[in-house]
Design goal:
Number of helices: 15
Order of helices and strands: HEEHEEHHHEHHHHHHHEEEEHHHEEEEE
Structural class: alpha+beta
Radius of gyration: 21 Å
Length: 388
C-alpha cells in the first residue's frame, strides 16, 4: 500500500520567501523559530554560551546523543578508519555503474547515487568477510535510506523491514568481539565503543553511520552529475578545479541537509527573538544558501561564483553544519564526491530525462524524479558504447 511521499519542496520555497521578508528569525505556522541568518546560525551551531543541548546527527541513540567524550573519540576513530582505505585507486567505477543501472542503461534518480556510494565505501562500512552484515546493510540502504529518507514512506513493507534489519544487525554484532587494535571498518568502530551499549544500540549506531556515509554523499553525487551534464561539464577536458566548484555550487543551491535542528537548553534570545528551554530551533540551510543579500542571482546555478567567493559567502556556506555537531567525515565526503564526479563527467557523456521539474524533499533534498543515461566517451576512431 502506498503511503505519503509528498515532497516538502513547496514549504522550503515558502520559508525562503518569508526569510527574505524578515530581518531576523521568525516563527513558522507551527511555532518553531526559523533562522535564516548565517551569523545567527553559526552562533547557534558553535554554541559557545551553552544555550543548546549537545547534539549529534549520527552518534546518538534515538534523540539522545552519546556522551561528548565518546562522540569525540568515535569521530577521531571514524577519520582513522577512512584514512586507512585507498578507495580512489581500488574502486571499479564502470562495474559499479553497470550494477546500479537498469536493463536499459538508466540511472534512476533518488537511488542510483546512494547505491553507487554504498559500493564505493563498502570496505569502510564492513569487511567483505562480514557477509551477513553486508547483506543487512544493503537491505537497510534499500528499505530505509532510499525508501524513507529520500523518497518518503513508499511501502508499508519498508516499515516492517527496518526493525528486522536492526534486529539482524544486533544479532550479528553480538557474535563479534571488540577489535583488539584500531578499527578497520564501521563494524569495528561500533564494536569498540564503551561497554554498556547493547547489541541493539550498536546496530542503531551502525545504521546511522551508514546513512551518514552513503545517504548524504550519494544524493549529492546525483545532483553534481545531473547538473554537470545539463551545464556541459561532461567532457574529456573537464578539470579537477572545475569539478571542485561544481560540487560546491551543487551543495549551495541544493544542500542535501536542508535544515539543522537544535534544542534550547536554557531560556535565551536569538537576534532579539526569545527562545524557551526545550524549544526547537530550525536553521534553514537552504534559505541561508539562497539569500539575495549574500549571493548574486542566488537561484542561478553558477559554479564560477566560487572562483573568488567573498567573506560573507564563505560564512554563509553551511552544507555540513558547524561546531561539534558538524559531520566529522565531511572532508572525505567532498573528496569522494569530487573523485567520482570527475571520473563520470570526464569519461562519460550524459543524457538527463526528468519526470518532474522540482526537487524531491524529505529527510534529504534529492533531485527530481527521472533518470540519467551515461555512455562511454568514444575512443578517437571508435563508436560510442553504453555503460551496460
Amino acid at each position: 500500500m502506498l503511503l505519503d511521499r509528498k515532497s516538502l519542496w513547496p514549504q522550503l520555497r515558502r520559508w525562503e520567501k518569508q526569510a527574505a521578508g524578515h530581518n531576523g528569525p521568525f516563527r513558522l505556522r507551527f511555532g518553531t523559530l526559523f533562522v535564516a541568518d548565517a551569523d545567527a546560525a553559526r552562533n547557534i551551531l558553535v554554541d559557545s554560551a551553552g544555550d543548546y543541548l549537545s547534539q549529534s546527527g549520527f552518534l546518538r541513540l534515538g534523540p539522545e546523543s552519546l556522551p561528548r567524550q565518546v562522540r569525540s573519540e568515535a569521530s577521531h576513530e571514524l577519520l582513522r578508519v577512512l584514512s586507512r582505505h585507498d578507495l580512489a585507486s581500488s574502486f571499479d567505477l564502470a562495474s559499479a555503474l553497470g550494477e546500479v543501472s537498469d536493463g536499459r542503461g538508466r540511472l534512476w534518480h533518488q537511488r542510483w547515487g546512494v547505491e553507487l556510494v554504498r559500493r564505493y565505501f563498502a570496505p569502510v562500512i564492513a569487511n567483505p568477510r562480514h557477509t551477513d552484515i553486508n547483506m543487512l546493510v544493503d537491505a537497510y540502504v534499500t528499505s530505509s535510506v532510499v525508501a524513507d529518507d529520500i523518497v518518503g514512506h513508499v511501502l508499508r513493507r519498508s516499515h516492517r523491514t527496518v526493525p528486522a534489519v536492526r534486529a539482524g544487525l544486533a544479532e550479528q554484532l553480538s557474535r563479534l568481539p571488540a577489535p583488539e587494535t584500531g578499527a578497520q571498518d564501521l563494524v569495528d568502530l561500533v564494536l569498540g565503543l564503551p561497554e554498556g551499549l547493547s547489541p541493539a544500540d550498536r546496530a542503531q549506531l551502525l545504521q546511522r553511520l551508514v546513512l551518514s556515509t552513503v545517504g548524504f554523499t550519494g544524493v549529492t553525487l546525483e545532483w553534481v552529475v545531473m547538473l554537470g551534464i545539463r551545464h556541459g561539464y561532461d567532457t574529456p577536458t573537464v578539470r579537477q578545479e572545475q569539478v571542485h566548484r561544481l560540487v560546491k555550487e551543487a551543495l549551495r543551491l541544493y544542500p542535501t541537509a536542508w535544515r539543522l535542528i537544535r534544542v534550547a537548553a536554557t531560556d535565551h534570545a536569538i537576534a532579539g527573538s526569545r527562545v524557551r528551554e526545550g524549544e526547537h530551533v530550525l536553521i534553514g540551510t537552504h534559505a541561508i544558501h539562497r539569500s539575495a543579500t549574500v549571493w548574486d542571482r542566488p537561484l542561478d546555478f553558477r559554479p564560477s561564483r566560487w572562483e573568488q567567493p567573498t567573506d560573507g559567502q564563505r560564512r554563509s556556506y553551511l552544507p555540513f553544519g558547524k561546531g561539534e555537531g558538524m559531520c566529522p567525515a565531511n572532508g572525505f565526503a567532498i573528496r569522494a564526491l569530487e573523485h567520482l564526479s570527475h571520473l563520470i563527467l570526464r569519461d562519460y557523456r550524459g543524457h538527463v530525462r526528468l519526470r518532474a521539474r522540482k526537487p524531491h524533499v524529505r529527510t534529504l533534498l534529492a533531485p527530481p524524479a527521472g533518470w540519467t543515461r551515461l555512455t562511454l566517451a568514444p575512443p578517437p576512431d571508435g563508436p560510442v558504447r553504453r555503460v551496460v
